[in-house]
Specification:
elongated; 7-stranded mixed beta sheet; Aminopeptidase; binds coenzyme A; 2 domains; single chain
Length: 313
């Protein structure tokens, strides 16, 4: 694959190629290069070649780490790019360079270009980065990229600092019921009359709606309505109308909407959030701490569902 991912004044980033194995072997053989990474050197050149040949992130996640090439002489300087972490459901930015190319601004130049690509082309709402607490050079690059410190944490046994940068083209905010319609209608009431988007509790004072705007376009919505189910106890709210436009899915937007709603509910003293979840969305909710209650049931015109809930403590 020879496609250029991004270009800068001095660099281009492209997917790894078979011949990059030698560079991976040489870079990781330098103890100073891998000192803070938790990685070990490749056993031999064949092991590095096998790593490149079996690197499947581009296919499985549509993103990956990319080779950083200096355009003036085609020199392979190192790598920089993105990685999806399914456990934490975040995309991180990372980089590594041959020691002889340190101190010349290549890491910052490539990382800034990758952030721009992640935000403008891939439309990710945010990125994270982490670095070993003592890796001063990495912290400097991350800060030059305007990423903000979030917390100290344990990254696979390494004491690390976590940073984050939010895509300024997104706005997550409370919205009106009507503002949900451009997403609610095509996603949840497709092919049905526009008036079908209306939910009876939409305008109640205890109901609130949250939306994610990308520039001026609403791309994701969720509504939270007071609704006490006899089955449950505590101060309850019900989630309804959770939807994200297809081209904005699998970027973490629904998770951000749900967390915003959960936080708002907690400040209102609500102790339980429940809803009827479409089958296709059940695993998404489970990964965010929701559990199913009882067995599958059918909602006419919509399809099979599960009752789900989460205690908001
Ligand atoms: C369900 C729905 C709201 C989820 O929206 P979304 O914005 O894609 O949700 P998220 O991106 O937060 O999470 C979806 C999945 O993408 C994953 N994901 C998040 N960021 C990712 C990334 N950068 N790369 C790859 N996957 C990513 C999440 O881990 C999650 O995986 P999981 O389902 O295995 O848990 C959306 O699919 C939708 O509108 N579906 C149709 C309507 C619907 O079913 N609504 C729910 C009614 S109950």
């Amino acid at each position: 694959m020879n496609t250029t991912i991004v270009k800068t004044d001095r660099l281009l980033l492209r997917p790894f190629q078979t011949g990059d194995g030698l560079h991976f072997f040489q870079m990781n053989a330098d103890p100073k290069v891998i000192k803070y990474t938790g990685d070990t050197p490749f056993a031999n050149q064949d092991a590095a070649h096998r790593f490149i040949e079996t690197y499947d992130a581009y296919v499985t996640t549509g993103i990956g780490r990319w080779a950083v090439i200096r355009t003036s002489d085609d020199a392979f300087l190192g790598w920089c790019g993105l990685k999806y972490h399914p456990e934490e459901r975040v995309v991180d930015i990372g980089f590594r360079f041959y020691r002889c190319y340190w101190g010349q601004g290549y890491a910052t130049e490539s990382a800034k270009a990758v952030i721009h690509y992640a935000f403008h082309t891939l439309k990710y709402p945010f990125l994270v980065a982490h670095a070993h607490v003592d890796n001063a050079a990495s912290h400097a690059v991350i800060k030059k990229c305007e990423m903000l410190f979030v917390k100290d944490f344990d990254y696979d046994g390494i004491s690390a600092k976590l940073y984050r940068i939010d895509n300024p083209e997104y706005t997550l905010k409370q919205i009106t019921a009507e503002e949900t319609w451009p997403v609610r209608h095509p996603v949840l009431r497709k092919g049905r009359p526009l008036e079908d988007v209306y939910m009876e509790a939409d305008e109640k004072p205890s109901t609130f709606h949250v939306g994610m705007y990308h520039r001026d376009t609403i791309v994701g919505v969720a509504s939270f309505m007071e609704d006490e189910k006899d089955y449950f106890t505590g101060k309850q709210h019900r989630l309804r109308g959770m939807a994200v436009l297809p081209e904005y899915r699998k970027k973490g937007i629904a998770e951000l909407l749900l967390k915003k709603g959960e936080n708002m509910l907690q400040t209102k003293g609500c102790t339980l959030l429940w809803f009827n979840a479409r089958i296709a969305a059940v695993s998404f909710y489970k990964n965010l701490g929701y559990v199913t209650v009882g067995s599958e049931f059918d909602i006419p015109l919509v399809g099979p569902h599960f009752l789900m809930k989460k205690e908001l403590l």
